[in-house]
Design a protein that fits this description.
The chain has 181 residues and is an alpha/beta fold. Helix 1 crosses helix 2. The longest helix has 18 residues. The structure holds inosinic acid and magnesium ion. The site of magnesium ion (MG) has 4 residues, from strand 6.
């Protein structure tokens, strides 16, 4: 695989098997945590759709899927912290067990906004499942109940994550290598 981003080589950070086996584990853990209950997954567009599609097939309790579109202003690899809702939930979540499905918690600003926004709607419970966590970049502490992988300070693409809206359809997660291609 010799994909490049802006002329820089991309390496494989997490391959397809590694991602899929971790997601199966997360699905089992989530099913156990909510055993005997129902769950609403709030899938944060666009980056989380591949993760959510695979994860929900490993959850064996009744789930509802809801989507929330969020976008943060700023350059393509930086978060400004100013978050805009581009698509809201299709119905209320009051009294429901809600699990946010996110692709990555980077600065934490998006998740902080989302938790604040959703908690005002009075769900019975509100938890977070993120595929990736970049602790070195966190600017605010956000609670994370399930983390797929904790990663170093790499800019990553693939498996839902984009660079300039591209690369989301890769089956693996790649990162930009330092040396020039
Ligand atoms: P935040 O900085 O935690 O607010 O992250 C906001 C959003 O930036 C994430 O949900 C991703 O969509 C995007 N993002 C952060 N880091 C990366 C990355 O390494 N690759 C691609 N998108 C990223
Ligand atoms: Mg995102």
């Amino acid at each position: 695989m010799n994909t490049t981003i802006d002329g820089k080589k991309m390496g494989v950070l997490l391959d397809e098997d590694t991602i899929q086996s971790r997601i199966a584990e997360l699905g089992r853990e989530i099913s156990e945590a909510y055993a005997g209950q129902e769950l609403t997954l709030i899938i944060v567009l666009k980056g989380s759709i591949l993760f959510a599609a695979d994860l929900c097939r490993h959850i064996d309790i009744p789930v509802e899927l809801e989507f929330m579109g969020l976008s943060s202003y700023g350059a393509s690899t930086q978060t400004s912290g100013v978050v805009r809702v581009t698509l809201d939930l299709s119905k209320p979540i009051a009294g429901k067990n809600v699990l946010i499905i996110e692709d990555i918690v980077d600065t934490g600003l998006t998740m902080q906004y989302l938790l604040k926004n959703l908690s005002t709607r009075e769900p019975a419970s509100l938890k977070v499942c993120t595929l990736l966590h970049k602790p070195s970049r966190n600017e605010v502490a956000v609670p994370m109940d399930w983390i797929g992988f904790t990663i170093e300070n790499h800019f990553v693409v693939g498996y839902g994550l984009d660079y300039d809206q591209k690369f989301r359809n890769m089956r693996y997660i790649g990162h930009v290598l330092n040396e020039e291609a």
